[in-house]
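[Meeting: bench + compute handoff]

Bench side (C.D.) handed over the final construct sequence. Compute side (W.E.) agreed to return the predicted structure before the next meeting so the bench team could plan truncations. Sequence as handed over:
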Amino acid sequence: MKDMRDRKYVKEVKVTPEMYKENKIVPFFAKRKIYFTISISIMLIGILFMFINGVQLDIQFKGGALFKYTYVGEIDADKASEVATEKLGRPVTAQVTQDIASGEQRLILNIAGNYGIDAAERDDFDAVLNEAFPDAQLKQSETSMVEPFFGKQFLTKGITAILLSGILVLLYVWIRFKMMGGLSAGAMAIVALVHDVLIVFFTCVIFKIPIGESFVAVALSIIGYSINDTIVIYDRIRENAKVYIGYSVEAVTDLSITQSMMRSINTNISVMLSVSLIYILAFGNGITSIQSFALPMAVGSISGCYSTICIAGPLWVMWKKKKGDDILFEEKKKPVPNY
């Protein structure tokens, strides 16, 4: 019996623009250069902001201290930063926020350094701040300190968690999608995930959000959402490949992405709206820890949807075409449905 998977026994079906138009198939592969240009442009903008803003590590990853004060009246954040820097001899960034619900005003000081601040030094520091702002009635509400040794450990473990999740995703896709070239499918899924993690990273850089535990949480969450959408599309490609024997891998992939597109968009819009609402509430109440999670998460959900639809699929088709596997074979052929 002749092997139906052998190219020479399969009649290639000619795919025409009319077929795409008639069945409302979006030509994702044909427009891949547009999508790739958009992604590359975003990456270049992110790199530019790395030189402008630098990369800020949170105290969990670099060590140092975080002081939060409540106050009344008005405080100049720049002046508070200068006073703190002069007193401690260490770089200090200051931020003022306000809780919309209670109207309480807060001064947040992020103190970098290779060591913490002991109790006596903290008391002296509080006295200097109260002397600089005598009418503000400064009261310390929260203190966080991390030694550099632990900060380095946290950073290493966070990066390890992200890398390990990527390796597990590659292995899972490789095993599950052997029929469509498991390694190529897994590799392109990883490229899309790297794209999403970089988008989250550059969001933190552009909006001056310190890279800390929130970044790790967002990165792992986005990896989960993004790979879920990618697997849905891969599943559809695998099922369509059993039906549309003789059609090019480009046509089957475009059809599969078009069929799955609205599901991915609706799911990610729901996530983005929910997280955006959380960000708005956190911003209004001055909860910086939630803001540093919610904003990158909202942007990352958009990136995850975009990379699944516009990056992973077209890249996989490029891989298959380069290897000469531009026709998908299975046991029978049916016409492209008008859905």
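W.E. noted at the follow-up: Residues 204 and 246 are 46 Å apart (CA to CA). C.D. will use this when planning the next construct.
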